[in-house]
Predict the structure.
Amino acid sequence: MRKLFVIITAVCFITSAIFVSSCNDCNCPQPSDKLIAQYDLNKMIVETNTTNVATGFESVFSKNIFDSTSRAKLCQVFVDSALFYSDNSGYFFIETLDNAWVVAHINHDIIGTSRYDVQDENGKYFIRDMVQTVKYAGYGFVDYYRKNPSTDDTERKLSFVTSIPEAYWFIGTGFYGGPQNGNYSQYDGNQFILKESVKSMSKGIANVLSEIYANEDDRVNFCRDFLDHIKFFDDGSGYFFVNNMEGINIAHGADANHQGKNDYDLQDSRGTYIIRDMIDIVNNSGSGFYEYYWVNPASGLEEMKVTYVSAIRGTNYFIGAGFYFI
């Protein structure tokens, strides 16, 4: 019996070693013990989207938009189109920290009204909770019950809110429903975060460029001002870039010195023409994922990068962002 046990143990050890060796020799994502629940993934998506857009507005407001009327117009134009999730139930709202006057919302009827005393379907003063959360914690999650615009049903909603300090406003967005079934690897979870972030940013910027900035120089400057300071993921390795369909870099969140350069012939260390391939994805599908090798700005090391790119409607631009894995 002891001899049989030793033989079985040896076979298992050899099989495991072969499996590990074969996986380490390929480029596939390595298995992870940590799985992300659907509910936690949704929290990551709304926190990332809210923080990114808040950073963009803060950057633009502090640099070149100083009056509240112009700021409110920019916010409303962006919010009108920057919907996310497949059912478009993800939307942004922006209100003042002083009595929660609505600055921007997909429901235009409430713009300019105070929501400070608004209650949810269970009598909770959820807007007051948002204001208090931002004032005293800087950011955080608030849960309440509200009508889902995609289903017209009253559902539990969890929103993430954070400040836009330059304007003394706060911004939020959320998702509907309680804990759901489904678990994702870190790799798959990051893909979902990327897709929803890039899609939302693409649609919001497209509307701003269409409605506010007609001049090419103004469009370029807005993209740079809005995106240059946005960093996401825990290590800050996530950033946005914008190129036009000729390959010229319009904005680069990790390297401002790269802006204006022609990337059409840019290759990774394996000889892949990165931007050419991204242009093909945008031309053929409008959006999609792409893998290549690039230096991670957080680690300084070359790593495999997964990027999601999307056309910016009404322009010859596309926007992308990615995550790294070893």
About this structure: The first strand starts at residue 35 and ends at 37. The chain is about 40% helix and 25% strand.
